[in-house]
Amino acid sequence: RDVERGDKQDDRAAARLFSAETLACILSHFPKHTGLSVYLFALGELYDAWQNRNIGHAERAKMVLRARFFLMAWRSHIEKHPDHRTHIHFISRESYEIFLTLCDSLLQLIVVYRQYFPMYPLLPWLHSTETCEHIFGILRQLKKDFSYTDMLYLEPKLQALLLGAFANLSFEEKANQTASGYHHTYFRAPDLDTAALMEWPTDVDLAKASAAAFEEVEQLLAAVGIDAHAML
C-alpha cells in the first residue's frame, strides 16, 4: 500500500518492523548491522510500552526510560563526534522530539493516575489519536478528499457505519474496509488484567526502573562502541 497507493499507510507493516521475528531475521542474516538491531529494539520497546495490554506500569516506565536514555546518549554521541552531524547522521529533529514526548507523557500519565485517579486503570493505548484515525478512515471511504463541511454532512452515515452492521465485523475486516492502511486495536484487549493496571509504582520503584533502564542502555550502546555513561 505504501508503494502503490502513496496516500495510504499500513499500520500493520510498521508494527511488524519492531517484532521479535524482524529482530531475529536481522541478527541471523545481517549480523554486522548491530546498530539497526539496537535501534529497532529500543524504539520497539517504546511502542510496546504504550500498546502492550499485559504488563505493569513499573515495566512500562522502565521501557520508556530506556528509550529516552538511548535517544539522548545517541544524540550526544553524534554531537560530540568530530565527523558526525545531527542533520545527517541522526534522526530528524521532529522525530527526536516526538519520541521524547512519548517517553515523558507516559511517565506523566502514570504519575497523574497514581495521584489523582488511583481507582481507575490506566489504559495508555486509549490515550492516542487512534480513534480519530479510525473515523478519518471511515470518512475517506465515504469521500476520499473530505472537508470539515463534508464531515458535518456525513455525520449520519458515519454513525450508521460505526453503530450499525459495521460494528459486527472482525478487527481485520474493519481495518480492510475503513482501510487507508489503518489497523485499529484500541478495543482489542484479550485477558485484560484491570487490577494489574491499577497497581501504581512508587517513586522508589520509578527510581529503580530508571537505574535498570540506564544500565541496559549502557549494555546496548556498548555493542556499537558508544559509552552511554560518558554521553549522559
Folded structure, characterized:
It comes from Plicaturopsis crispa FD-325 SS-3. This is Unplaced genomic scaffold PLICRscaffold_19, whole genome shotgun sequence. It is built from eleven helices and no strands. With 232 residues, the protein is mainly alpha-helical. It has helices at 11-16, 20-29, 34-51, 57-80, 86-89, 93-116, 130-142, 148-163, 171-178, 203-222, 228-231. The chain has two domains: 11-126 and 194-231, no CATH class; 129-185, no CATH class. Helix 4 packs antiparallel against helix 6.
Protein traits:
single chain; mainly alpha; 232 residues; 2 domains
Structural topology:
Elements: H1 11-16, H2 20-29, H3 34-51, H4 57-80, H5 86-89, H6 93-116, H7 130-142, H8 148-163, H9 171-178, H10 203-222, H11 228-231
Helix pairs in contact: 3-4, 3-6, 4-6, 4-10, 7-8
Helix content: 55-70%
Content-based structural category: mainly alpha
Order of helices and strands: HHHHHHHHHHH
Low-confidence stretches: 178-184
Overall pLDDT, averaged? 86
Alpha-carbon Rg, integer: 20 Å
Q: Could you tell me the number of beta strands? A: 0
Alpha-carbon distance between the two ends: 40 Å
Give the overall silhouette.
globular
Please summarize what this structure is.
This protein is mostly helical and 232 residues long. 63% of the residues lie in helices and 0% in strands.
